[in-house]
Design goal:
Strand content: 5-15%
CATH architecture of the largest domain: 3-Layer(aba) Sandwich
Number of helices: 15
Largest sheet: 4 strands, parallel
CATH class of the largest domain: Alpha Beta
Strand order of the largest sheet: 2-1-3-4
CATH topology of the largest domain: Rossmann fold
Distance between the termini: 69 Å
Helix content: 55-70%
Structural class: alpha/beta
Order of helices and strands: EHEHHEHEHHHHEHHEHHHEHEH
Number of domains: 3
Bound molecules: iron/sulfur cluster
Radius of gyration: 21 Å
Length: about 375
């Protein structure tokens, strides 16, 4: 059995760490690229969500590298995610890419089924070893997030654009290669130390933006056209509504780690959206309110075109904008999206925020 799974940002480091800890064979698909997207667009239904198309491309590329078993997350609720695995399996089968598929439904909804499917993956490994592997790979997710938050802080401040991202890439590799807690700690500590030493400008007026929206577009730089890097170049410090370790902790580990500070987004969303609408629609609203209360200068919602939960959130955001007095930009991405168009919109939005702030300062004098 040679396992694979689709990409979603840095998630591959965590899943690979887990599977390798259990001595299982794993093939990581090449990073998502135009070629991956082209494959997905060619074979997926036209109106499928963008993440499905790219996932499909990942799986075709992984099959070509020898993978024969897919691990996929399942989903519940009123959006298309719950159908992904089945649709992808059928398309791959029709194309002649034979795969075994192991779909892991969220454990908080179907615990028995989750354990049964997990057993199939772990083979002869003991449950004790599985728990150790989960703990270790979760620590990798925490390390990635720690480094990533530092990167988000430094990007708008670095003197030489790009320095932080060169270090970030290197640190991710060392976290990926870490085989023990000691080497993981070393990789994280050294990485943070190197980032600390990046020369920065201290006298800049930094704009703070909260990035909210659908999980895949938030976490996968190929799909969001590296929006965080582009914002960094514009002097913007980004904070996302969603980080890998928080998501793993709350969705897969049933809040095993009490250290993770989960924002009370359900409470914050309540006056505007009082029920689950699938995906991360409710988080989008809750975090929009939370970020505005924390003094952020603006919000950017990002989602795949036709993403139902985010369309629901989008329709509510004007009310949040009005009542919380915060500028909000919504960006939908699909296979036609290009970086030049994105950068133009970001520049206009950040320019607007800067001018508003200048006006406020002038009035306050
Ligand atoms: S959250 Fe949006 S993009 Fe993701 S599966 Fe649901 S509808 Fe599609």
């Amino acid at each position: 059995m040679i396992l694979t799974f689709p990409h979603m940002g840095n998630m591959y480091i965590v899943v690979k760490g887990l599977l390798e800890y259990l001595d299982l064979d794993v093939v990581i698909p090449p990073f998502s690229s135009q070629k991956t997207l082209n494959l997905g667009v060619k074979y997926a239904p036209e109106f499928a969500c963008l993440p499905l198309k790219i996932n499909l491309g990942n799986l075709i590329e992984a099959r070509q590298l020898g993978a024969d078993t897919i691990i996929m997350a399942g989903g519940v609720g009123p959006c298309r995610f719950g159908l992904y695995a089945q649709v992808e399996k059928e398309i791959l089968h029709e194309l002649g890419y034979e795969y075994d598929t192991l779909v892991l439904e969220p454990p908080d909804k179907h615990l028995g089924q989750f354990i049964m499917r997990l057993k199939k993956i772990i083979g002869t490994n003991s449950w004790r070893k599985v728990i150790e592997a989960i703990k270790f790979s979760y620590q990798k997710a925490c390390a990635i997030d720690l480094v990533e938050r530092k990167v988000q802080y430094l990007r708008p401040r670095e003197k030489r654009i790009g320095t932080v991202d060169i270090i970030y890439k290197h640190v991710l590799n060392t976290i990926d290669n870490a085989q023990s807690y000691i080497s993981l700690q070393e990789a994280t500590g050294l990485g943070l130390l190197k980032l600390e030493q990046v020369p920065v400008n201290d006298d800049l007026r930094i704009i703070k933006i909260g990035l909210i929206g659908e999980i895949y577009t938030l976490l996968e730089p190929f799909v969001n056209l590296e929006i965080e890097k582009e914002l960094g170049k514009l002097g913007v410090e980004v904070t996302r509504s969603l980080y890998l370790s928080e998501w793993i902790n709350s969705h897969l580990l049933m809040n095993y780690s009490k250290r993770e500070k989960v924002k009370p987004f359900v409470q914050l969303a309540k006056p505007y959206l009082n029920y689950f609408v699938g995906g991360h629609g409710r988080e989008t609203i809750g975090y929009a309110v939370g970020f505005s209360q924390e003094g952020f200068h603006g919000l950017i919602q990002i989602a795949p075109l036709t993403c139902m939960p985010e369309i629901v959130a989008h329709s509510i955001l004007p009310k949040v904008r009005e009542e919380c007095n915060i500028p909000i930009l919504t960006i939908y991405v699909d296979e036609q999206s290009g970086k030049a168009g994105l950068v133009t919109r970001l520049e206009a939005f950040i320019d607007l925020i800067r001018r508003q702030l200048e006006n406020q300062r002038r009035i306050a004098k």
